[in-house]
Amino acid sequence: MAGAHADPGLTRSALENRRVLGVIAGFGAITLGEWVLGTSVAVHAYQVGGALAVGLVGFRFAPAAVAGLWTTRLADSATRHRVLSLTAAARAVTTAVAAIALALELPFGVVIALVWLDAAGGSGYRPAQAALLPALARSPGELTAATALVSNVKSSGQLIGALLGGLLVAGLQIEVAVSCAALLYALAVLATLGGRPAQSFTPRPLGMSAVRAGVGSLRDSREGRSIFVYSCLRSLVRGLWLALAVVASVRFLSLGPSGFGDLMAAAAAGALTAIVVSARLVGNSRLGGWFALGLLLCGLPIVGTSVSSGPLPALLLMVVWGIGMSLSDVGAQTLLNRIVPGHSIGSLTGVMESGKLLIEGAGSLIAPLLLLAFGTRAAVFIAGAMVPIVVVAGSRGFARIDDRAVARLGVLELLRGVPVFGPLRVDALEGVAARLQLEHVPAGVEIVRQGDSNAHRWFLVAEGELVVEVDGFFVGELRRGSQFGERGLLRGVARSATVRAVGDVALYALEREDFLDAVAGVELEDPGRALPARAERVEPANALAHAPLLQSLPPAVIGQVLEQSRARVVDAGTAIVTSGELEDSYHVLLSGRAQVRIDGSVRRDLHPGDAFGEIAVLHRVPRTATVIADEPSEILTVDGEVIRAAVRARGGVLAALAS
Question: So where are the chain's domains?
Fold first, then answer.
């Protein structure tokens, strides 16, 4: 799910990256295969073994949760760059064997065992994918955009896969439908084949130590325990409904053999709709109410389905159910991020996700017992009524959760303006806020110093005013909402400027590993290596909006500056500016790469988005360095007087220099 401020340019850049596109396409094929397999086998299971067989198929989530304790570690194996292809290949083989077993009419228990094996083997795919994306993306913004695309592909793949699975099992032999799932897994193999990346990152495996840490976090937080219980109850209902829906679609919804696929496709459509809703939750101060609403929508549509007499009402109710499932999932993680200490979020989230899978599998096994004891409609009604009853009974608790969670809201508005975090969905953005550390710095203190090679923190200005100095010259000013320190963290290079507090300043600081975790969308075991920081091209408006001299200006002023700028392409080896010349303009590198040289020595590399020329523009002195294009590059140039006028209009410490 993309956040509310996802940059279309970053999304386009991610899709133009062949390796990233391969990962996204591979995950799409894997998701399609999973849902074609699960849907078709569940429908067939009811035909050959009744509700119990359907429950056993749904129980596949439980072995997947247990296997995940080990398969997560595959991302740190010697062949981690091939784990995606190998995992998809193993699933293709397992599913092909299941198709053969069905064609040979072997006992259905063999097919169920193979479905369980497929789910267990697939548990290592997502961690391996998370380990590879940071190594394949060319910039942090591209990485977060790719992570958001993966999330959206999952929701879309579920919708299409459920529809396809239902249609295949209704019109063809079951072995053909399962063979199609195997083919989709094989396509995932082809999509993810590629060379070894320069580096990869390992997600922190769950493991027993992390399980103990997560359980300890729950023990220390009453509100955290409540969220955990509600999330598990939601998963129980999902497991029950996945099994009951197969029976209900045939017995009283008049949907026919493909009905289960139709219901699940409608639910996936609701999950896609929830993207828009969840994007509006960033910074909402009463998120507990939205969480409660999502939980109610996990149950009430199922209750409505139990009294439905036709397919159309049931399909519409499933759209609402999909919205509720997605909204409650995002709400649970977001609230945990607000109330749980940042260092505990990863382990607690891991415990919750594994617990949800186990309970979902258990729900699929309980469903046949409800059918046997109460009949189809009553069983569906009971499954749907559980969550609303518990939510209404504990309604006062949601206000208490909100009261506990409001402390971190203030920083969210600041984080929303940070471009690298733009594609994050609401729960991930709240996770960044949870890890920020508020610091108060007295006037005159240097927060970072030019040339310092120990770059281990990123900063976001909460209050106060700071100045940026390069080689002893004032070249920039930072205010509330400004951020700095990103370059040193991402590229593993020395600090390129000194940042000093003018008066007393309040800063939010983020440790390097937490910053890279947030950018990658997953907790990384080894964040000590720099993320690739080279983008294919930066859009001119974004480049100006985040250039050091201009990043605090309102969008209208940035637009005026952009109108008076000009872009040009220079060849490799071209001197863009030359030391000692009196050239009064400000430059931003839009694409390519350049080097800053002083007295013949390379001081630093410039990448897309980097700006230069501040000293000459503000102090009206000869150029202090030479900048040479390392490869064909596109440069955005703004006349010095345009920049000075913008700085004067803003006021502050540097306004006098621009007079």
Answer: 1-205, 222-427, 436-520, 540-650
